[in-house]
Design brief:
Elements lengths: L3 E8 L3 H14 L3 E8 L6 H8 L4 E4 L6 H6 L9 E5 L3 E2 L4 H11 L5 E7 L15 H8 L8 H7 L9 E2 L7 E5 H6 L12 H12 L2 E11 L9 H20 L2
Parallel strand pairs: 1-2, 1-4, 2-3, 6-9
Antiparallel strand pairs: 4-8, 5-9, 6-8, 7-9
Length: about 250
C-alpha cells in the first residue's frame, strides 16, 4: 500500500487529552501520514503545546470557535491525500489502525467511509448508534441505564449484527471517521449548518447516497467519551438545535 493519508483534529481547550491522541497516532502509524491540528481559539495552551512538542504536525489557528465541522472544513483545500481521517482530540490508538483502515478501503473500492470499533480506555465497548437517528433512538440513547442495552438501543446500535466481520451502517460516529479524500471534498466537507453534533450523521447520510458506509469491528480505537451535552446546558441546547436542523434537512430533502 502506497497511499497518502491525512488526518485532522479540531481542538478547543483540549490540552488534557490532545497529547495522548497525537503521540499514539504518530507512534503507531507506519503509513505516509500527515496530521493537522485546527485550533478553535484555545486559551489553555493547546496549540503552543503541539507546536513545541510535535513539529511534524501542522497547526492551524481558526481565529475563534468556529465549531467542529467548520474547523475540519478549513483544511480541505490543503489535502492532497488519498484517504482522510477525522479524529476527536480524546481518541487514542494502540496499533496501526490508520494503515489497517486504508488497506480496507484499498480492498473495497465500493466503500467510501469506514468506521472502526470504539471502546473506552478500559476496553469496554461504547454503544454508539449505527442507524439513522430518529426520536425513539435518541430517547433510548439519552436515557439508557448502566445495565444491558434494551431493545430500542440494541436496534439503534445494531448490536445483533455479526461483529466478526465488517457490515454496512447508516450512521458513523464522528469521533473517528476514515473517508476517501476525494469523496470528502466532493461533498464539500461537513455541512456548515451544524456548529457541533449531528454533522457526523449528516455526512454519513450524504456518503450513503453515492457510496457505502461500513463499520469495521476488526479495527479498534479508544475514546474518552464524556457525553458533555448531558451535563452542560449550553451544549445540550446546541445538541437540540443541531438535531432539529438534521431532521428538517432530511425530512424535506428529495
Amino acid at each position: 500500500m502506497n497511499k497518502k493519508i491525512s488526518g485532522c483534529i479540531v481542538t478547543y481547550n483540549n490540552i488534557a487529552t490532545i497529547d495522548k491522541a497525537v503521540s499514539t497516532l504518530l507512534k503507531c502509524t507506519e503509513s505516509d501520514f500527515r496530521l493537522f491540528i485546527v485550533d478553535n481559539g484555545s486559551t489553555d495552551g493547546t496549540p503552543e503545546h503541539i507546536e513545541q512538542n510535535y513539529p511534524e504536525v501542522t497547526v492551524i489557528r481558526s481565529g475563534g470557535n468556529v465549531g467542529f465541522g467548520a474547523g475540519h472544513n478549513l483544511i480541505t483545500d490543503r489535502l492532497d491525500s488519498d484517504y482522510h481521517v477525522i479524529i476527536n482530540p480524546d481518541i487514542s490508538v494502540r496499533d496501526d489502525v490508520i494503515s489497517k483502515l486504508a488497506a480496507y478501503l484499498d480492498e473495497n473500492p465500493d466503500v467510501g467511509l469506514v468506521s472502526p470499533e470504539v471502546r473506552f480506555p478500559d476496553g469496554k465497548p461504547q454503544i454508539l448508534g449505527k442507524r439513522t437517528p430518529c426520536l425513539r433512538y435518541l430517547f433510548a440513547s439519552h436515557f439508557r441505564g448502566k445495565g444491558e442495552a434494551e431493545k430500542t438501543l440494541r436496534e439503534y446500535a445494531m448490536l445483533d449484527e455479526d461483529y466478526s466481520k465488517p457490515f454496512p451502517i447508516e450512521n458513523a460516529t464522528g469521533c473517528f471517521i476514515f473517508i476517501r479524500t476525494e469523496l470528502f471534498k466532493k461533498l464539500g466537507g461537513f455541512d456548515k449548518r451544524y456548529f457541533m453534533y449531528f454533522e457526523d450523521c449528516d455526512l454519513s447520510r450524504e456518503v450513503n447516497r453515492i457510496s457505502k458506509v461500513v463499520y469495521n469491528p476488526l479495527v479498534t480505537v479508544y475514546h474518552e467519551w464524556h457525553r458533555e451535552s448531558k451535563r452542560n446546558m449550553k451544549l445540550k441546547l446546541i445538541h437540540i438545535s443541531s438535531m432539529l436542523k438534521f431532521f428538517a434537512k432530511w425530512t424535506f430533502r428529495k
